[in-house]
Amino acid sequence: MLSAFVRAFRTPDLRRKLLFTIAIMALFRVGSFIPSPGVDYGNVQQCLAAGGQSDLVGLINLFSGGALLQLSIFALGIMPYITASIIVQLLRVVIPRFEALHKEGQSGTAKLTQYTRYLTVGLAVLQSTTYVTMARTGQLLPNCDVIPNDSFMASLLIVITMTAGAGLIMWLGELISERGVGNGMSLLIFTSIAASFPPALWSVAGGNNGVQKFVVVVLITLLVIGLVVFVEQSQRRIPVQYAKRMVGRKMYGGSTTYIPIKINMAGVIPVIFASSLLAVPGLIAQFASPESGWVQWVQRNVVDPASPLHIAIYVVMIIFFCFFYTAITFNPDEVADNMKKYGGFVPGIRAGRPTAEYLDYVITRITSAGSIYLALVALIPTIAFLLLGISANVPFGGTSILIIVGVGLETVKQIDSQLQQRHYEGFLR
Predict the structure, then answer these.
(1) Which domain of life does this protein belong to (predicted)?
(2) With contact defined as beta carbons under 8 Å apart, do 51 and 114 qualify?
(3) Is 408 within the bounds of a domain?
(4) Same domain, 9 and 107
């Protein structure tokens, strides 16, 4: 991996792309520390030192690189765009027009991207309004007055600033995808999560038995990263043969290829969905009286990460969303029809409906193993940290590791493919 980066910086064109990508990532981090107008930055820092935010807010704050709880201009981070992209992708199942646009190729994809941008702005307005309201009522940072001016215009200015920041982040991510290296949105998420690691390690090392806990945390993290890399690189290759056919005087086909099916086809989406939905009851309970019986039951059984009910619901939701998201992103009938159209078939399986049934059978078995793997990755760090007495908000959970490893592997693959294009050696030298 390191040799690939060294060779990349020796190539002028690729070096410019890498430096451009790094510059955008640095600009994204700088914007995370610029407070929105009307926010008392000194009170924010004092409140952050006290802690006490909810799990859902902590998850969103992780994806924004700590910008949310600082109420900066980039407080919303990349979450509005991620949510909009997932919604548009899910709407393909409900709205036939979206599915038709998806099948139109580049022009249809451009139209869906435009819809995603509009939805991102709308979600940014909704989320920024929610966060400003939570900050003014003390739900975002408990017992803290971070917005001294309670006027409507002051709150509106903060909402406009955060919405504009979300739009700017979306533009920066698209710039990386067009002119840089890798997927821009994924790299910005990678930047946000990676920026949270140094202060988290520092907090672990500064507590009781800090050195021992620090070593154990690093070893557990490396072990989980190794497991994630091994599984994410694993594939189930379904062989596909194409029959020979004559078109005019030329013969086409006759080649052999394969369909690569990853064990974890859903990626980190099931973990994000499960974490977000599981944190909603605790968020609702914050608006009720702490003395209520149902509020105490929710805090004790649903919000507490060490609760058996919390762990059970978490695992069930991850497995469910694994199957749900895989069923949306991979359509066996569509793949079988495309193979049949171009004369392809799986050896030993008839083309058409039998091929679709075979692909569905393989996907179901692989997703079963992938969902269990995803649940284990999401739970192992949490359980280990709870046993060590470390805060559950330390950003070394399964979600963080899956994103960092996945984005890192994909970026290195893209760099390596571009290196092969520029340093291709033929038979003659």
Answers:
(1) Bacteria
(2) no
(3) no
(4) yes
pLDDT of residue 427: 38
Non-local (6+) Cβ contacts of 194 within 8 A are 404
Question: What CATH number is attached to the domain comprising 203?
Answer: 1.10.3370.10
Q: Give the model confidence (pLDDT) of 231-264 as tens digits.
A: 888 888 888 887 766 666 666 656 788 888 888 8
Same domain, 365 and 293: yes
pLDDT > 80? residue 202: no
Asked whether the beta carbons of 88 and 108 are under 8 A apart, the reply is: no
Give residue 384's pLDDT.
Answer: 66
Strands (DSSP E) found in 171-300: 235-242, 245-247, 250-252, 256-262
Q: Which of 89, 396, 67 is nearest to 225 (CA)?
A: 396
- Residues 352 and 276 reside in one and the same domain: yes
Q: What is the 3-state secondary structure (H, E, C) of 96-131?
A: HHHHHHHHCCHHHHHHHHHHHHHHHHHHHHHHHHHH
Nearest to 53, CA basis, from 37, 36, 70 = 70
Chain-centroid distance of CA 420 in Å reads: 28
Of 175, 196, 217, at which residue does a domain stop?
A: 196
Q: Does residue 319 lie in a domain region?
A: yes
Residues 222 and 179 in one domain: no
Domain boundary among 196, 222, 247: 196
Question: Is the residue at 11 inside a domain?
Answer: yes
Angle of helix 210-232 relative to helix 197-205, nearest 10 degrees? 140
Cβ-contact 371, 270 below 8 angstroms: yes
36 dihedral zone (left: phi>0; alpha: psi -120 to 50; beta): beta
CA 113 to chain centre: 18
Find the mean pLDDT for residues 390-403. Answer: 63
Confidence band for 164, pLDDT divided at 50, 70 and 90: very high
139, 208: one domain: no
Q: Is residue 428 part of a domain?
A: no
Three-state secondary-structure class, residue 146: coil
In angstroms, the CA 121 to CA 87 distance is: 13
Q: How many residues does the chain have?
A: 429
Helix orientation angle between 96-103 and 106-137, rounded to the nearest 10 degrees: 130
Number of domains in the chain: 2
| Cα gap 82→86, rounded to integer Å | 6
> Residue 56's domain spans which residues?
1-196
Work out the number of other CB atoms within 10 angstroms of the CB of residue 413. 12
